[in-house]
Amino acid sequence: MSIPHTTTSADVSSEAARRRTFAVISHPDAGKSTLTEALALHAHAIAQAGAVHGKGSRRGVVSDWNEMEQARGISITAAALQFTVGDVVLNLLDTPGHADFSEDTYRVLSAVDCAVMLLDSAKGLEPQTLKLFEACRARATPVITVINKWDRPGREPLELLDEISDRLGIHPTPLNWPVGIAGDFRGVTDPDTGGMTEFNRTPGGATIAVGQALDADEAARRHGQDWQRAAEEFELLAASGHEHDQEGFLAARTTPVLFGAAVLNFGVAELLRAVIELAPPPSAWTDVERQPRPVDAPFSGFVFKVQTGMDPAHRDRLAFMRVCSGRFERGAVLTNARTKRPFQTKYAQSVFGRERETIDEAYPGDVVGLVNAHALLVGDTLYDSRPVRYPGLPRFTPEHFAVFRPRDAGRGKQFRRGIELLDQEGIVQVLVSDRRGVQAPVLAAVGPMQFEVAAHRLEQEFGAPASQESLQYGVARRVAPEARAVVNRQRGAEVLERTDGVAVALFNDKWRMRTIASDLPAGSLPPMFGED
Ligand code: G4P
Prior knowledge:
Radius of gyration: 25 Å
Number of domains: 3
Structural class: alpha+beta
Bound molecules: guanosine-5',3'-tetraphosphate
Strand order of the largest sheet: 18-17-23-14-15-22-19-20
Strand content: 25-35%
């Protein structure tokens, strides 16, 4: 039975309208952690920079909870940070930086309404940025672009805009323009005042840097030619169709562009403003029947991520749920749309890395961490009074395959349990066949680091060290039922079954796959998802 409450749909609508749920996508080292920290700092969520993600001498906190993550200095898990600016509630979802975890990132991106694409001014678009941008494109998620590290020598801003438009096919519309070249950065133009915001270095970047506002005369006096050039270029860009276009942005055809230096907190206030003023608030989610469910409909939520072992002391399992409609109230008993079974929400938390706080209520756009969520899987829908089911998430096409076996035959049960949980969490995909048996499943991954995580966790969490044998397959396709047996007889190919029941054919390489496909009826080997 759910707890009755008196929230009206007007309350829920206005709560939804003041929320912005977004994630930062970038290539490792572009400055995502620094930017996250700077955003939180600006929002006064934390008193001193360094509290979110510690590197170097700064105080280490939260995203770094995982041992492997710390050892490697990469973020391989996702968490959500909530902060308030004025009347607006911002939910910033953390995305893993490493390319091997792009599937994980895709799941996080399924739960946001907007993405911030962060580029390094010297490097422009890097491989991981491209991949993550594609994930945004697949869902038509609006993207705000931030060109970071402008305090260092980098590339020409016009060249960077060209790269965005040529390689991503999205039209860049700068919201401001850098004064001075990268490396000799003077500030950014301020279209609202017709002047500029001057860039001041704050030593250490540990305090909020407030750029000084200069009017046009003052800007001309202090920055002479640099200012003239920036003002002219910005005007020319606006005249040649590069002005911000809200409709185009919401439809993911254009991307507003900002320039800054996250480590010095410069440009961060402008980004916050862009997120608040331009990013869309939560809106109706489309269910499996293709019906939109308005934000003020009775409660529903979508599980986009499941994580076990976040707290090494207890082997807990946490499901991250985005609220899609209605008001979430801790203690309510919800229904899992997949199993139709009840789910207790007594232990609901907001989670950012190790920091957890009990959450009592949440509104559309918010992320709730559900503790002890053993019955929940990625892609599950939970609802309160009016049933709904949202479409699940596609699995990426794996490119790496390895047979895992328990090293210690006596730990077979723990091994199987571990594999099952890693599968449910989506750490790896698990493929089985009668021929190979359950003690020798084939693990399939988008990137090989997923195997490392799987092996590490099997040993640490389940006490089941495993051996790995890489398989010489590089291409995976779905396989139509009538083609299964034929494909399975071929050299350089093998058919297995994924745990969700999808038959997957593996091939040595794409030439082998094409040769085999040419002897089969058209459509026998449909592509999976992601790379195709
Ligand atoms: P990531 O999460 O995207 O991987 O990047 P992260 O924030 O860790 O930043 C990567 C490096 O880039 C860090 O340097 C960080 O200080 C630096 N950085 C971030 N933003 C800027 C910027 O606007 N300008 C300049 N010049 N550097 C920036 P590091 O040497 O790896 O670490 P640290 O010891 O300096 O923290």
